[in-house]
Amino acid sequence: MNSPQFTAEPSPSPSDADPYPHPVPYDVIIAGCGPTGAMLAAELRLHDVRVLVLEKETEPAPFVRIVGLHIRSLELMAMRGLLDRVLEHGRRRPAAGFFAGISKPAPEGLDSAHAYLLGIPHPVIVRLLEEHAVQLGAQVRRGCAVAGFEQDDEGVTVDLADGEQLRARYLVGCDGGRSAVRKLLGVGFPGEPSRTETLMGEMEVGVPQEEVAAKVAEIGETNKRFWLRPFGGGAYSVVVPAAGVADRAEPPTLQDFKQQLRAIAGTDFGVHSPRWLSRFGDATRLAELYRVGRVLLAGDAAHIHPPTGGQGLNLGVQDAFNLGWKLAAQIRGWAPETLLDTYQTERRPVAENVLDNTRAQMELHSTEPGPQALRRLLTELMDIDEVNRRLIEKIAAIDIRYDFGDGPDLLGRRLRDIEVNQGHLYGLLHRGRGLLLDRTARLTVGGWSDRVDHLADPTAALDVPCLLLRPDGHVAWIGDDQQDLDAHLSRWFGKPAN
Questions:
Q1: What is the pLDDT of residues 405-429, one digit of tens each?
Q2: Which residue, 248, 249, 361, is CA-closest to 305?
Q3: Mean pLDDT over all residues of the chain?
Q4: Collapsed DSSP state (helix, strand, coil) of residue 420
Q5: Angle at 227 between CA 225 and CA 228, to 5 degrees
Q6: Closest of 237, 229, 233 to residue 200, by C-alpha
Q7: What number of H helices and E strands is found in the chain?
Q8: 371 exposed, middle or buried (CB, 10 Å; 0-12, 13-18, 19+)?
């Protein structure tokens, strides 16, 4: 067999492959510079797409909320060379206890080289992803709110709140659960409104830590929406059920926290000196469409759900990872006819599943006798390894299999970060291109070499002869026949360049 070879060609620059001769200032305007918008901007810039990100807020959020990056999101960071940078700012914890807060150990042998949860401050992950996008050439403008838009056959004209007009080929709404883009687009957002609300904040307490810990342990036996956790610097993260559902535009007061703490715990713990206070509900909604013409939705603009299980940020970042290379292909002019439509057909069912598992988890959080009995039963069932593993894989998003047609179970799934002769697999995906892993060392990517890299004789860890990876790391083809490979290269990467 031939010696290992890795072949790659640089992506074409805009001047080399711009299919649109008429002047349009931007290829894509993204509304919202949260994790989803910033990740999407970076993915587009890997393919030399001209990107402008509009963020209505002039400054990042003043409060620090800890979010968790699950296994699949950590894999995506590794695929783009971001993981080491992210790990510097986070704290690892076992991949366990996600589903409804039921405490069970992490299953052994999870199928990932990054089988842990990373807790990281929300403003930090936003900053890191925005810096990544800007370093790749994305433009970010703050204090710019989308007030309207009109689309035609060639692009989208975007009206800003200050009266300025901008022009782009596509517009993507990554502007949160109250998305202006979604509302202006007229896309339905059916689901359930909030039935309960939870107060969340960061403040100091006036009693010893031991007293706090004892009371929290007592109440936490039945109330999973209640906790006080030391946050550092003398502050505590405080979460407590609200008295009812209020206008989320109105932030809660310290008195609201005191009142609810006394109602549930019999003491307000002497809370004082709040750093920030907020509330969140359990509304669950899913956009009817992810795309209407040249306007698309991603992240919370497309789906909202309760934060139980910590899936929201992860779901949005994974939306961006799925959409980025497809939208770039459309703009670069090589996308197969239906490629961009696969964004909705692949990602909307994933969101449906997340909404369903958060609905189930919220029921298990109820203090009513029936849900508590069901919680005890599920807790017992989770002692079975396969049950525990299945729920962890669901929350961590490593169970996803896109429908690519009949084939081996690996087809449509993401491939873990295996060792290859060039180091690690994910290190070969930093540029956001497809990749052929060829154990036969006799296949070729031919006219697709400007979009797909080729690694001959990659590793003995694979138990298939060859496989084709999409830029998002999902297996698009398995086999050893050149003609069959060419058909699948055409399916995902369009016509060959020559």
A1: 999 999 999 999 999 887 899 999 9
A2: 361
A3: 92
A4: strand
A5: 155
A6: 237
A7: 13, 25
A8: middle
Amino acid at 141: R
Residue 312 belongs to what H/E stretch? Answer: helix 312-332
Q: Of 183, 184, 235, 185, which is closest to residue 209 (Cα–Cα)?
A: 235
- Cβ-contact 317, 72 below 8 angstroms: no
- Non-local CB neighbours of 390 within 8 Å, separated by 6+ positions: 399
Inter-axis angle of helices 71-79 and 312-332, nearest 10 = 40
Residues belonging to the chain = 498
Classify 257 as helix, strand or coil.
Answer: helix
Provide φ and ψ at 45, rounded to 5°.
-70, -25
Q: Name the H helices within 97-208.
A: 122-135, 180-185
Task: For residues 272 and 96, give the distance between their C-alpha atoms in angstroms, rounded to a whole number.
Answer: 32
Taking the C-alpha atoms of residue 39 and residue 26, their distance in angstroms, rounded to an integer, is 17
pLDDT digits (tens, 9 = 90+) for 354-381: 999 999 999 998 889 999 999 999 999 9
Q: What's the one-letter identity of residue 402?
A: Y
**10 Å Cβ neighbour count for 453?**
20
HEC string of 357-370 equals HHHHHHHHHCCCHH
Residues 93, 67: Cα–Cα separation, whole Å: 12
H/E element, 476: strand 475-479
